[in-house]
Amino acid sequence: MFRKYTFSFLVALLFVAVASVAFAAEGAAAAGDGNVKTFIALAAGFGIAIASFGGALGQARAIAAGLEGIARNPSAQNKIFIPMIVGLALIESLVIYTLVIAFVLVGKL
Q1: At the fourth CATH level, which superfamily is domain 32-107?
Q2: Which of 71, 84, 95, 107 could link 66 by a cystine bridge, Cβ 3.0 to 4.6 Å?
Q3: How far apart are CA 54 and CA 92, in angstroms?
Q4: What residue segments make up the domains of the chain, in order of their start?
């Protein structure tokens, strides 16, 4: 219960912190493209950070589940190992796609 309230509080705090940037957007629109380039660079960086974090968590859970299955039933190693490797490759491909998108965004600077 405490974690739920803590998470809700942190989300509300994030919205309050971002709201000041949104209200200041009118003044920034007159400033020119300087801020747009900054936000594109930040978006590329945050995209890579979030994708690598999510990919690492996904791969860790997939490997843990695969190794647990192999530990419980060693004779099923051939049936578990190949799909696990394919799943890891698909998870990693999402991170690589995010890297490509980040390069495209930074290329627009």
Answers
A1: F1F0 ATP synthase subunit C (1.20.20.10)
A2: 84
A3: 10
A4: 1-30, 32-107
Q: Residue 69: which residues within 8 A CB-CB, separation 6 or more?
A: 76, 80
Place of tokens 């405490």: 2
Q: How many CA atoms lie within 13 A of 1 on its CB side?
A: 0
Give me 33's structure tokens.
Answer: 């493209």
What pLDDT, on a 0 to 100 scale, did the predictor assign at position 22?
A: 60
Positions in the chain short of pLDDT 50:
none
The whole-angstrom separation of Cα 38 and Cα 32 is: 11
Res 41: pLDDT: 87
Residues 6+ apart with CB under 8 A from 20: none
Backbone angles phi, psi at 32, to 5 degrees: 120, -160
